[in-house]
Design brief:
The chain is built from 12 helices and 24 strands. By secondary structure, it is of the alpha+beta class.
Length: 526
Amino acid sequence: MTGEMERQADVVIVGGGPVGTGLAIELGQRGIRTLVVERYPTPQRVPKGQNLTQRTMEHFHFWGAEKELRAARTVPKEYGIGGLTAYGTLLGDYHYDWLQRELVRPYYFTDNERLPQYATEDVLRARAAEIDAIETLYGYSGEAIEQDADGVTVTAVPREGGEPVKIRARYLVGCDGSKSDVRDMAGITQTRSDHDRLMVLLVFRSTGLHELLKRFPGKSFYNVLHPDLKGYWQFFGRVDLGNTWFFHAPVPADTTRDNFDFTAYLHRAVGAEFDVAFEHIGFWDLRVAIADSYRKGRVFIAGDAAHSHPPYGGYGINTGFEDARNLGWKLAATLQGWAGEGLLDTYDAERRPVFASTAKDFIEKAIESDRAFLETHDPETDRAAFEREWTARGSGARDEVNAFEPNYRGSPIVVGAGGATNAIGGHSFTARAGHHLAPRRLSTGENVYERLGTGFTLLALGGNDGLERFRIAADEAGVPLTIVEDDATGETADYGARFVLVRPDQFVAFAGDELEPDLVGRATAR
């Protein structure tokens, strides 16, 4: 096409939302030339993806943006960011604490956080702008892709008119949302589980609701279970403190912006009247979708392009960020020449089963459990039985937080783990192959996380047998390696191993008392 501009990159990312920009930072910090194509010049001001886990905040720590993200929060830190589940109406007689992620805080290096996705995107865009290896094309759409044996060509078209841009890269990653054009153009199919429910998203202003909910101090999001809704949630969340809110809930299939009384619906869900001024009314279909593969040749997908589900439990954006960390170091290793031929395939092998388990064992299980509870328990017919089960459910909410522990036990690049890769586990300070490394203090007083390198890190705790041979093997393979030597008389004794090999994404590749000569090769699919 006459007048077309051409750009070169190692990796082109189509979709510059939080996952795409996070991936760009992961790559750019490793010196990988990355170009991001994003359709919107500025982040869309619709609040979603607000709950950021402790694990996600570890990503921001390593991306050099944790401090900036915490400064961008819209609810004051002293107010708290906890959740609550209520029965019938939000102001009814029954409620319990929900999604208590602070219960697993000791197993992560950072605190969790809560802020609207657009605020998160602002911080990520600012951080990406600081990295020389990252180039951005805001206001462009990826309209066509072609791949061959050597790379991928993307045609990016400006949405406001102008000349298209041809981008040539070694790899392409589609982070362009649940309706991903990259996924469709690459020929990657999806499997869907449709719940046949139309959901509304309301964003509204109300100081009256803030006054009503002062009885629940420290809470920022609220889930209402109502018998008529068969286990599907009515979900309120604060956007800021005192004024702006969002609300998700099922509505009749023929609902439009003009034929439904949304104010009355909000009042019924809360159990009281209050002032309402709408800023946004939108709709979405409640379904779970997972791509049948996360890779097609030199094209990868991540975030909502690879998997999507209803916003139950704050799993979505956090799962997408973990995709970015997992894929990022593997793409960098491949481009820098220290990866084995099979390393990129482990992105799908690790991340796809984790999402399938998250959807089945947590999100859909929660809907089914809520439905069964509402069908069999009613305080009007048997109050004692209802209250016994309601109390038990409050304890179960604690159990769910502890049980959600995504792991790669079945991964081909995890040594000595065994078992299946999924999202079900249990938090522990013991270093377990395929699991996230828990933070512990070294004898110097430093946290292990302060000593982790950008490549692999070997923790040598109480012995150096085979250490020099391991160092040489890593050097010969070109694998970036940081070695941290310490005794195991303090907190690091909790790891239960003399040697712990930690991947660039802070998952344990190996834990044991003897260093095996081929560990480096096995952990990088060489």
